[in-house]
């Protein structure tokens, strides 16, 4: 069962692996990223960041969707991580589950504006998040479990 889908452009790193493990007590992480799935070195680095006893799968979006629909995962507590809102939207279009989406770290860059602490978004990111919200999926903005989660809808009204 999917516990949460997190948007974090760094994908799997210590903060994601350990702080969210303490909160969600997941036993599997699925990284849905076409780029990461096709980068052997990046996959190896993510394996080193994975907490002991936690299964890790780094897949393309389509392969991640197939894995997440596997009945064997129903008994597992799965934490899904995607690099951006568009990837989450693509994934949600392929799976029946509608878990909470956690908007975490997204770095600044060309065409991006500050949305909340540690989250910079482009117009394309906002359009994808709005589409996810329109699906009736709850989106929270939260860097780490020790910080207060904020409602995407509330922040979006101010943006």
TrEMBL record:
Any GO BP? phosphoenolpyruvate-dependent sugar phosphotransferase system
Q: Which residues form the PTS EIIB type-4 domain?
A: 1-159
* Entry's Gene Ontology molecular function annotations: kinase activity; protein-N(PI)-phosphohistidine-sugar phosphotransferase activity
Q: Where in the cell is it found?
A: Cytoplasm
Give the matching Gene3D superfamilies.
Answer: Phosphotransferase system, sorbose subfamily IIB component (3.40.35.10)
Q: Which InterPro entries match?
A: PTS_IIB_sorbose-sp, PTS_IIB_sorbose-sp_sf
How far does the signal peptide extend, from start to end residue? none
Superkingdom of source:
Bacteria
Q: Would the keyword Cytoplasm turn up in this protein's UniProt record?
A: yes
The name on file for this protein is PTS mannose/fructose/sorbose transporter subunit IIB
Q: Which UniProt keywords apply?
A: Cytoplasm, Kinase, Phosphotransferase system, Sugar transport, Transferase, Transport
Record GO cellular component, one term? cytoplasm
Record-linked SUPFAM superfamilies: PTS IIb component
